[in-house]
């Protein structure tokens, strides 16, 4: 009976729906990858023996490679999203539309270059330009994240402006106020995720002098936000 209760528990069904998605598996792997990056740094800084550090270094490298494989072909999705946003002439806000185009193109170029470096990383075809391509991939990712962060800041400003026009004594005003609160919460969470993710390409490109501890923690936070968002979507 106990086994049946566990097997048929709604949480188990929810978990199966979650891991059935590529995004769900990627977010879990990403969380473990960046936590391992942080923890390997922590063990190194605390003078732990190499045998304790090695498993976390391996998780960091192998899960990064696995995630590269999971991302293969995903660039097409972002190119299409960029084209759709560009063609959306009925968009309520032109600034946000162009930010969306910039974000999607940044991600698309990043994933295209990342896909090119994959064949070198796994030894299928060695590329002399692999390091340069990876650097350009990070630059494209940085641009995409920057567009999204700017869009987030702009959205928060816009929500604040909308809030000043609401009469909270009115029934419709109360409903609109709650809607704005939900939108603000979602925007704040996404902005935190983007700012955390920006540490990764910033560090790789030398824009900021960040050690693996900071980058690992920031990546873990943004990954957990991604896990939480995907978990909600698969409810």
Write a structural description.
The chain is mostly helical and 235 residues long. 83% of the residues lie in helices and 0% in strands. It has 9 helices and no strands. It has helices at residues 2-7, 10-19, 22-45, 50-70, 75-87, 94-121, 130-164, 171-205, 212-233. The protein is globular.
Question: Notable features of this structure?
Answer:
0% strand, mainly alpha, 235 residues
What is the β-strand count?
A: 0
Structural class of the helix and strand makeup? mainly alpha
Overall mean pLDDT score? 92
Helix content: over 70%
Low-confidence stretches: none
Give the end-to-end Cα distance, rounded to a whole number of Å: 25 Å
Work out the radius of gyration. 21 Å
Specify the number of helices: 9
Give the SSE order as H and E letters: HHHHHHHHH
Tell me, briefly, the overall form: globular
In terms of DSSP E residues, the strand content is under 5%
The biggest beta sheet is recorded as: none
């Amino acid at each position: 009976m106990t086994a049946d209760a566990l097997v048929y528990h709604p949480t188990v069904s929810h978990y199966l729906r979650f891991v059935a998605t590529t995004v769900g598996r990627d977010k879990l792997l990403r969380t473990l990858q960046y936590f391992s990056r942080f923890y390997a740094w922590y063990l190194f800084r605390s003078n732990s023996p190499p045998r304790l550090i090695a498993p976390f270094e391996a998780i960091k490298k192998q899960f990064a490679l696995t995630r590269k494989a999971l991302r293969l072909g995903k660039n097409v999705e972002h190119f299409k999203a960029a084209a759709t946003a560009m063609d959306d002439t009925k968009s309520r806000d032109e600034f946000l539309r162009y930010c969306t185009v910039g974000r999607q193109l940044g991600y698309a170029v990043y994933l295209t270059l990342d896909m090119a470096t994959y064949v070198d990383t796994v030894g299928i075809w060695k590329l002399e330009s692999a390091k340069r391509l990876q650097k350009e991939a990070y630059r494209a990712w940085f641009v995409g994240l920057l567009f999204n962060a700017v869009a987030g800041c702009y959205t928060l400003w816009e929500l604040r402006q909308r809030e000043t026009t609401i009469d909270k004594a009115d029934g419709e005003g109360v409903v609109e106020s709650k809607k704005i609160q939900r939108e603000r919460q979602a925007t704040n969470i996404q902005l935190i995720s983007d700012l955390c993710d920006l540490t990764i390409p910033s560090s790789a490109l030398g824009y900021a002098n960040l050690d693996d501890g900071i980058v690992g923690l920031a990546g873990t936070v943004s990954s957990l936000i991604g896990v939480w968002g995907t978990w909600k979507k698969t409810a």
